[in-house]
Amino acid sequence: MKILVTGASGFIGKKLVQYLLDKNMSVRVISRRLESLDNFEHKNLEKVRADAQKYEEVRDALKGIDIAYYLIHSMEGKSKDWKKFAEIDKRIAKNFADASTECGVKRIIYVGGLVSVPDKEMSKHMSSRKEVGDILKTSKAKTTILRASVILGKGGGGFEMMRYLVERLPVMICPKWVLTRLQPIYIDDVVEYLYECLNYKETEARTFDIGGPDVLEYREMMKEYGRMNNKSIIMIIIPFLSLRFTSYWVDLVTPIKASLARPLVEGLKNESIITEKSIMGLIPIKLKGVEESLKLSVYEDDKLEFTNRENYLSYLVMVLGIIGILHFFVDQRLMMFLPITGTLSIIWLSIIGAGYYFIKKKARLGSLLAGIAGWSSALFWLVDSMYLISYLPQIGPYPISKGITILGNYPDVNTSILNIIGLCVIAILLVIAHFTFYDKELYTKQL
Ligand SMILES: NC(=O)c1ccc[n+]([C@@H]2O[C@H](COP(=O)([O-])OP(=O)(O)OC[C@H]3O[C@@H](n4cnc5c(N)ncnc54)[C@H](OP(=O)(O)O)[C@@H]3O)[C@@H](O)[C@H]2O)c1
C-alpha cells in the first residue's frame, strides 16, 4: 500500500509521517519547499516537491498512490488577503479531487474543522474547511473526513496562540469568544485515528467527529494552561471587541501572524463539540483529557534567544526612561504635578515599561511600544524646546521671566545636555524599532 501525505511539513502532517514510517509503511510526502522536510530520512520515504495549486504537480504526486492524506491548509500571506485563502483552498481541493480520480486513488482521508452549529451560522473559516471536504467527496476516491476542534500539541496554530497569550499577558482583555465551548483533542490521538482509518474499512466514505473526553470553555483552557505554568491570568471580557482588532492584537503579542490569527479567532466563534460519536465504537482509543494534553504540550526549556537588534532596543528603551526621569531632577518640572501633565507622564512611563516587558517577551508589540515612546518623546522635546525659536513672556496664567520650556523653566546646561543625549537616543531607538517591528520573520520563527 503506497500512501501520500500532503501538508507533511505542517503540524499534523509531521507527526503523521513519523508515525507511518515507524509502522514501516511506504510513504510519499509533498511540500512546496523540500527543505522543510529535511527532518525526515527513511528508506520507505519519498519526497516530492509539489505545489497543489498546480494540477500537473498534484497529479504527478498522486501517481501510484492508494491512499492520500489531505492536510493542506493555505493560511499565509498578508492579513488583508485572508479572504482569498478560502478561494485558494477551494482550488487546491478541486485539483486534488480530480487528480485523485484520474490517478485511481482509492481513499482520501482529510482532517477538517469541527463545529456544532447549523451551516448558516458557521464562521467563514469553518465554512471553507467544510467546503474543502465537500469538494474532496466529489472524487471517485472514497473520502473519510475527521472533524476536529482545537488540536492540542506543540506547534499547533490554535494551541500556540493560546499558550503565547497566557504566557505573555498577565491581564487580558478578551472578546466574548473566550466563552465558546470546545472539545479539544491531543495531536497523538488525532494521528492514531488517522492511522487506524487505514485498518478499518468501515471508515471509508464517512464523516466522523473526533474529540477528547473534556468539554470546556476556551477561557477555562487558558486558565488551566496558566495554572500549569504557575501563571495566574486576569481576563476581562469585552463583548464588542471586533474580530479584526483581536487578530491584530494576537499578531502583536504572539508569533502567530494576523493572516493565521484571523481565521483561528473567527473559528472560535462557533461551539465545537462532537455530536456524532460513532468513531468511538469503531476505533477504541484511550483519549487524553485536556489536563494531560496540556501537560504533554508544556514548554519546559523555552529559552528565548534575542538578536543584537532586540538587545539594543531593550537598552535604548531603558535609557530613554532614565533620561525622562532625570528631567524631573535637573529641570524644575513643576507643571508635572498638574493632573493632565502628570497623567501624561505616567502614561509615557507605562508605555516605556510595557515596551521593555514585551521586547523581553519577544513580542512584536514591544517594538511598536518602543516606537510610540520614541515618537512621543521626540514630539515632546520639539514642543518643549520651542524656546529656541520663540521668546514667551507668559503662557496662560503662568508668568515667565525669560523663556520657557513648556513644562519648566528656561533650560540650563544640564537640561540641554540631557536633551541632546535624549534626541540621539530617540533617533537610534526609532530606527531600530522600525526595522524590528517590520521583521516579521524574527517573530514567526519562534513557532
Ligand atoms: N491545527 C489545528 O488545531 C487543527 C484543528 C482542526 C482541524 N485542523 C485541520 O487539519 C488540517 C491540517 O492542519 P495543520 O494545523 O497541520 O496545518 P498547517 O500546520 O498549517 O500546515 C499546512 C500545510 O499545508 C501545506 N500547503 C499549503 N499550501 C500548499 C500548496 N499550495 N501545495 C502544497 N502544500 C500546501 C503546507 O506545506 P508546505 O508549506 O510545506 O508546502 C503545510 O504543510 C487542516 O485541514 C486544518 O483545518 C487543524
Offer a quick outline of the entry.
With 447 residues, the chain is an alpha/beta fold. 49% of the residues lie in helices and 13% in strands.
Structure report:
By secondary structure, the chain is α/β, with parallel strands linked by helices. It has two domains: 2-297, Rossmann fold (3-Layer(aba) Sandwich), CATH 3.40.50; 308-444, no CATH class. Helix content is 49%, strand content 13%. The protein has 16 helices and 15 strands. The strands form five sheets. Strands 3-2-1-4-5-6-11 form a seven-stranded parallel β-sheet, with helices on both faces. The chain has a two-stranded parallel sheet with strand order 7-10. It is elongated, with a radius of gyration of 28 Å. The mean pLDDT is 89. NADP nicotinamide-adenine-dinucleotide phosphate binds at residues 6-7, 9-13, 30-33, 36, 51-53, 71-74, 92, 111-113, 129, 148, 150-151, 156-158.
Write the layout of secondary structure elements.
Elements: E1 2-5, H1 11-22, E2 26-31, E3 45-49, H2 55-62, E4 67-70, H3 82-103, E5 107-113, H4 124-136, E6 142-148, E7 151-152, H5 157-168, E8 171-174, E9 181-182, E10 185-186, H6 187-199, E11 207-210, E12 216-217, H7 218-228, E13 234-237, H8 243-253, H9 258-267, H10 278-282, H11 290-297, H12 308-330, H13 339-360, H14 364-384, E14 394-395, E15 398-399, H15 413-437, H16 440-444
Parallel strand pairs: 1-2, 1-4, 2-3, 4-5, 5-6, 6-11, 7-10, 8-13
Antiparallel strand pairs: 9-12, 14-15
